[in-house]
Write a structure and sequence with these properties.
Blueprint: E1 5-11, H1 16-25, E2 34-41, H2 48-54, E3 59-61, H3 70-83, E4 88-91, H4 100-105, E5 110-114, H5 126-133, E6 137-144, E7 154-161, H6 168-191, E8 195-198, E9 201-204
Parallel strand pairs: 1-2, 1-4, 2-3, 4-5
Antiparallel strand pairs: 5-6, 6-7, 8-9
Helix pairs in contact: 1-6
Bound molecules: 5-O-phosphono-beta-D-ribofuranosylamine.
């Protein structure tokens, strides 16, 4: 392999997924298959920026409010990403819709983490909607980004049970914990060249699959 995969992480807020990526692949990690080349935020006040700075990572702010159009904003982001030498983009709580031009330019080099088991519950308020739907499992998905929001070839998923007595915040916390394991796992598989896209589905090789079935409620 030709050195670590140089990834730009795009954030808008808290940055707990960014933190999981820093813990897995940050400057302190020897022989990491991923190098975080840039942390870019569209919001100057995103708390995730501090996490990045603390880890000694390069940060940039491209404030969407400073641009007339989405196109101009995305061009500015693209420029910063390339200037930092990144060859791959990971969205981690990035709350702006991307233009078709950006998505096309980064096709199969652009991933997102979504707090639901896609294709169930794309969009916002996924935990509330999962509770309303009464599903017994919920979770998180890492996927390549396509034009339609929260669509694209699925790379990895983590399922968590929905427990009786759950409210939005207990369920969100359970999913978030899973996200923090899932995103590093998915990026590692990509960096190790174990993921390819064929006919708009991914094929993952050289990684163990889950086996068995999960039941919720569990059989006694
Ligand atoms: C996560 O739930 C992620 O799945 C979604 O936005 C949230 C970001 O949280 N896309 P954080 O900023 O990583 O803490």
């Amino acid at each position: 392999m030709a050195g670590p995969l140089r990834v730009a992480v795009l954030i808008s807020g808290r940055g707990s997924n960014l933190q999981a990526l820093i813990d897995a692949f940050g400057p302190k990690v020897a022989d990491s298959p991923v190098k975080i080349a840039l942390v870019l935020s569209n919001r100057p006040d995103a708390p995730g920026l501090e996490r990045a700075a603390k880890a000694g990572l390069k940060t940039e702010i491209v404030d969407h409010k400073a641009f007339q159009s989405r196109e101009d904003f995305d061009v500015a982001m693209d420029r910063e990403i390339r200037a930092a030498g990144a060859e791959f983009v990971a969205l981690a709580g990035f709350m702006r819709l991307l233009t078709p031009q950006f998505v096309t330019a980064w096709k199969d080099k652009l991933v997102n983490i979504h707090p639901a088991l896609l294709p169930a519950f794309p969009g916002l308020n996924t935990h509330k909607r999962a509770l309303e739907a009464g599903v017994r499992f919920h979770g998180a998905t890492v996927h390549f980004v396509r034009h339609e929001t929260d669509s694209g070839p699925i790379i990895a998923q983590a399922a968590v049970p929905v427990l009786s007595g759950d409210d939005e915040s207990t369920l969100a916390a359970r999913v978030l914990q899973a996200e923090h394991r899932l995103y590093p796992l998915a990026l590692r598989l990509i960096a190790e060249d174990k993921v390819r896209v064929e006919d708009e589905r991914t094929i993952v090789s050289g990684a163990p699959s889950a086996d068995g079935a999960l039941f919720n409620p569990a059989p006694s």
